[in-house]
Design a protein that fits this description.
The complex is a heterodimer of chains A (96) and B (954). With 96 residues, chain A is mainly beta. Chain A has helices at residues 36-44, 91-94, and strands at residues 3-6, 10-13, 18-22, 52-58, 66-72, 78-83. In chain A, the strands form two sheets. Chain A has a four-stranded antiparallel sheet with strand order 3-4-5-6, with no helix packed on it. In chain A, strands 1-2 form a two-stranded antiparallel ribbon. Chain B has 24 helices and 48 strands. In chain B, the strands form twelve sheets. In chain B, strands 8, 9, 10, 11, 12, 13 and 26 form a seven-stranded mixed sheet that branches. In chain B, strand 27 (479-481) and strand 28 form a beta hairpin. Chain B is elongated, with a radius of gyration of 38 Å. Classes of the chains: A mainly beta (96), B alpha+beta (954).
């Protein structure tokens, strides 16, 4: 079980949270103008890295807020937690 | 086994407190401080179990978790517990245990004849033999012959609980190393320390030490720990799982030791431990020696003999023989002799042994056989004789016969296996240490330290020379897994058949798959495999350790989440009134709602007919409180909703209401409902009852993750308001009778309008929408006033024979009208065009969630399952939702019935469905297959009742 530092509530157990999958996926600004392939990629194509994965989590049984988590998929270590409006941390900042 | 007449002095049992207990129907006596195993041994019982497959007689092998022989059925009836290790059951007054897997009992098991069949029942026997016609033809028989204890058949009367605990340092194991670790960690008062041990009392192997100095040290250490406020001590607690982030799971046996009684405390507690640092002081387990007929009762681990002697004060043997390949057993033998007990001989496979040990053994009068192997044992119900042969220095071949020894107990030590289960679970790497022939912790993966014997720090040199099996004699009766009857020959067979991966060998032979999960058999099996393959042990590798370390009661996982507490549920504000009205309640999502209100002796179908006719002809009242009520507020609320609904929200006027459909980004319909404009920047979303929470989360996700620039707040006020649906041609007449300031006249309050005001002196919101097809008022008041409003409307409706109606009647009414119910009439593929919404979407200029997906090829497929009405050709026909609509050639499914009711208003079945290409097939004949039979039907437009739709304007 992993422990996640909610930016609003502090350190809490994984079971209070819901993982929403990969973060930083940009919705096309004008969906009507993108190709079927681009739209399908936006909808379905996701990274599956061995290592640090940037994903969004919701503190479902707490403040109900979404935020980003950089999590190592091998060690389950939470490398960084940052708010939705904050930029993705650079690998240097993670010490990776 | 010799009966113990008088316990040795210094034993940790209280001879002033005798306890009577039963085993296999016979009364026996033990003392407080005994385990069931020590009490059985004290009474001279050498056979206490039977093996799983061959029903071989089994005697006590060890003293703790590693015990694979002394499995008993503890207590009976609802309190019954199968496969209890006698070594782990503390004796209590009146304890009642029976032997397992034997008939009539473990002493005289008629199925013991199976033992003679060993050579015909090798590892792969079941796989190869019971294939014709299939395994299931034989399973019933095999399950009766081979087996473990029986699971209780009635509900567990005892309680279980779960609890979380946080600590800076968690020490697991309270032997010498663990106690030292706990003492040093807790010296810092700011450090929260948790010390856990699985035994009845702290001390670990120290409890079995005959030395006064050890006992004094233990007493001092415990006194110090007890005095410290920053340490929590958990006895009778087994840590079973080690997970990520130093989270551990442990089972505390809170009141098991009190026996089969229901007490206020739970029986067991499942701890979830959040640890800063973990110290594993889990000790080591002794391994058996592998030789022919090494499974005979009376053959036990050398450490077990020591513990039964020094801790429990038993005198088990007059002529005990020790058999070993290392020094530790010599020290056990010497300690026994020191205590004044007889030791007949030490047989050692090694040709050379430490001179000092030799000297001491000779001085103690112990016969010594070096470079010697035991090649057979004999004796009924216990070992009586062992046969000795010379063995070559490399252990590879036997020499001549030496002698045979008459004996009454054989204590064996094949070396030590550090208890690294938890360490392995934590992700730590193991490394094979040749000198001790065991795996020890190498690189840790989490914040964990391993100390003492668990780390391979045995404190005394073992000078071990592994002897994995006895050469030059049949390997058929050289047991590895005593419970599952796996012998060295089974491992060799697996290797011959090319099962060379250690994980495959484990499954093929079942070695290490018995209840102890290989605590004594794994390494020996690995050694035999390595030797057979001619490869070094570390190359063969070891199987992975997974939780649980020791079996955990299922009840502990359930905790208190049973029966009424199984899942949280919500009650309607007027629940008590519905109960008084005789409602049948059902769970709809989290809500417990009236399904219908049967009169005396009235069937469900008759109740639904009566209730729905009341709504069609007079007036009915439904508790509609679970209706989703999300309020969307803010300067960008209108823009936000316009992006969320497929409908145009920009043109919705204040006080107006509009039906809307919501999609996910894949274009799939996830909700429908009515959007009410309360003010220019304030909207009320009446979502589906079951979807309120999910839709709230859906909206939040878009606001928080995608459209951070929109100034909008979403609030779920569903349970803040009680909502009653007053429906039927007389609805307005009833509502008029209640005092309020909202003009409900037909002229002032049209269909799809919304009003706010007061009713019966309370704030009130009324929406005119209709899910029944009749004039309907959806009246909301603050939740606490729901019961009063219900009573007022029932009283006012009395003169119109108002009927309360339940959710099933509502479903009947809306099916008659062909009104869609999301989740019933839609599935995970339904897009709005399947519901006939393509033209409306065309007219909306703006983008909305999911719109682009509708234009993908899949959205344009003419054979999409489309929403339709279905009419049976037989006017008396019945159909159930879930029935299939067949393709024209009858070979496959082309849709299904999604809603079906018998309509009392129309006198026939009304049905809705999702059918391939239905919109272009209006009127077409189809065949329905359901409940094993076919019937003819045709596709029609949804809405069989009141096709003109006039009734709802009333």
């Amino acid at each position: 079980m992993i422990v996640i530092q909610c930016p609003w509530c502090g350190s809490r157990s994984e079971e209070e949270f819901t993982c929403g999958g990969e973060s930083h996926i940009l919705r096309p600004e004008k969906p009507a103008e993108v190709s079927d392939e681009e739209w399908a990629a936006y909808l379905y194509q996701r990274k599956n890295p061995k290592g640090v994965h940037y994903e969004r989590w919701r503190h479902t049984y707490g403040c109900r807020q979404w935020f980003n988590v950089a999590r190592d998929t091998v060690t389950h270590e939470v490398v960084a937690v940052y708010r939705m409006n904050e930029p993705r941390p650079t690998p240097e900042a993670e010490g990776a | 086994m010799k009966r113990t007449v008088e316990r040795l002095s210094g034993a940790r049992v209280d001879v002033s407190r005798p306890l009577t207990f039963m085993f296999d129907g016979q009364p026996y006596r033990g003392f407080a401080g005994d385990s069931l195993a020590s009490a059985l041994l004290a009474n001279g019982l050498s056979v206490v179990g039977r093996s799983f497959k061959l029903h071989r007689p089994r005697g006590v092998l060890g003293t703790g978790k590693e015990e694979c022989n002394a499995l008993v059925q503890l207590e009976s009836g609802a309190f019954s517990e199968p496969n209890a290790r006698a070594t782990l059951v503390p004796l209590y007054k009146g304890l009642n245990a029976t032997g397992q897997n034997a008939w009539p009992n473990v002493q005289f098991d008629l199925l013991g004849a199976m033992g003679a069949l060993k050579r015909f029942l090798p590892a792969s026997f079941y796989y190869k033999t019971f294939m014709w016609p299939n395994w299931h033809s034989w399973e019933w028989l095999i399950r009766r012959v081979a087996g473990l204890g029986a699971a209780p058949l009635s509900a567990d009367p005892q309680g279980y609980i779960k609890q979380n605990i946080h600590a800076d340092v968690v020490v697991i194991g309270a032997g010498r190393s663990g106690l030292q670790a706990a003492l040093s960690a807790s010296a810092d008062e700011s450090c929260r320390v948790l010390l856990i041990d699985e035994q009845e009392e702290f001390g670990g192997a120290l409890l079995a030490s005959p030395l006064d100095a050890d006992r004094q040290w233990l007493d001092d250490a415990l006194a110090q720990l007890e005095a410290r406020a920053n340490i929590t001590l958990l006895r009778r607690t087994t840590v079973n799982g080690y997970y990520d982030n130093n989270v551990l799971a442990a089972l505390e046996r809170v009141s098991n030791h009190l026996g089969p009684v229901v007490v206020e405390r739970p029986r067991e507690r499942l701890w979830r431990i959040f640890a800063g640092r973990v110290v594993l002081a889990t000790g080591a387990l002794e391994r058996p020696m592998v030789f022919p007929n090494n499974d005979r009762p009376g053959i036990m681990l050398a450490s077990a003999l020591a513990e039964y002697t020094h801790r429990y004060g038993l005198t088990l043997a007059e002529r005990p023989v020790f058999y070993t390949n290392n020094d530790t057993a010599w020290r056990r033998a010497l300690a026994l002799a020191d205590a004044g007990l007889p030791v007949l001989a030490i047989v050692d496979t090694r040709t050379a042994v430490d001179g000092e040990l030799l000297q001491q053994a000779e001085a103690a009068g112990i016969d010594i056989y070096l470079g010697t192997a035991i090649t057979n044992t004999a004796g009924r119900g216990g070992v009586r004789k062992v046969t000795l042969h010379r063995i070559a220095a490399d252990g590879g071949s036997l020499g001549g016969a030496v002698t045979s020894l008459r004996c009454d107990l054989l204590a064996m030590s094949g070396g030590w296996t550090p208890t690294i289960h938890l360490y392995s679970q934590s992700g730590g790497r193991l490394q094979y240490r040749d000198s001790d022939a065991c795996f020890v912790p190498a690189d840790a993966h989490q914040s964990v330290s391993v100390v003492g014997r668990a780390n391979g720090d045995f404190g005394e040199p073992a000078n071990l020379q592994p002897q994995w099996l006895t050469p030059d004699v049949s390997s058929e009766k050289q047991w590895l897994d005593f419970q599952y009857d796996v012998t060295a020959s089974d491992i060799q067979l697996a290797a011959r058949e090319n099962f060379v991966s250690v994980e495959h060998v484990k499954r093929y032979t079942t070695n290490g798959m018995s209840v102890d999960q290989g605590k004594t058999s794994n390494i020996n099996g690995l050694g035999v495999l390595a030797q057979t393959l001619g490869r070094p042990v570390p190359e063969v590798g070891t199987t992975r350790f997974r939780p649980p370390y020791h079996p955990t009661t299922v009840g502990a996982f359930a905790g208190v989440e049973l029966g009424a507490l199984y899942a949280p549920y919500q009650r309607l504000p007027a629940h008590a009134l519905h109960e008084a009205a005789g409602a049948v309640f059902e769970d709809y999502g989290a809500w417990r709602r009236p399904a219908y209100y049967p009169g005396p002796g009235e069937s469900e179908e008759r109740a639904l007919a009566r209730e729905s006719l009341a709504v069609r002809q007079g007036v009915g009242l439904l508790d509609y409180s679970p209706l989703g009520k999300l309020e969307v507020h803010g300067p960008d609320a209108r823009e936000f909703l316009n992006r969320v609904y497929i409908n145009n929200i920009q043109t919705l006027k204040v006080g107006g209401a509009r039906y809307g459909l919501m999609l996910d980004e894949g274009g799939i319909v996830i909700d429908d409902g009515i959007v009410v404009c309360l003010a220019e920047d304030h909207f009320l979303l009446n979502t589906t009852s079951g979807g309120a929470q999910a839709i709230h989360q859906h909206l939040e996700e878009w606001l928080q993750c995608e459209w951070l620039d929109l100034e909008v707040i979403v609030n779920n006020l569903t349970s803040q308001w009680a909502t009653l649906m007053l429906s039927g041609p007389k609805a307005r007449d009833v509502l008029c009778k209640l005092s309020g300031d909202i003009d409900v006249s037909r002229e002032a309050f049209a269909h799809m309008q919304f009003r706010e005001g007061t009713l019966l002196g309370q704030p009130c919101r009324i929406l005119r929408a209709s899910f029944t097809g009749e004039v309907s008022f959806e009246i909301s008041v603050p939740a606490g006033h729901g019961p009063a409003l219900w009573q007022a409307l029932m009283t006012a409706g009395d003169e119109y024979d108002i009927a309360p109606f339940g959710l099933e009647s509502l479903m009947l009414l809306r099916t008659e009208k062909g009104y869609l119910h999301i989740g019933s009439d839609t599935d995970g593929n339904t897009m709005p065009q399947d519901l006939g919404w393509a033209p409306a979407i065309e007219k909306k200029p703006a983008d909305f969630i999911g719109r682009r997906s509708l234009a993908q090829a899949v959205g344009k497929d003419p054979d999409r399952f489309q929403f339709t009405g279905i009419e049976l050709m037989d006017p008396d026909g019945r159909v159930e939702s879930g029935a299939h609509v067949l393709t024209s050639d009858g070979s496959s499914t082309a849709g299904y019935v999604t809603s079906a009711f018998h309509s009392p208003s129309l006198g026939r079945t009304v049905a809705l469905g999702l059918v391939a290409g239905a919109h272009a097939r209006d009127g077409e004949k189809i065949t329905i297959f359901g409940q094993g039979s076919k019937q003819a039907a045709r596709l029609v437009k949804p809405g069989a009742y009141d096709e003109a739709g006039e009734a709802l304007n009333g």
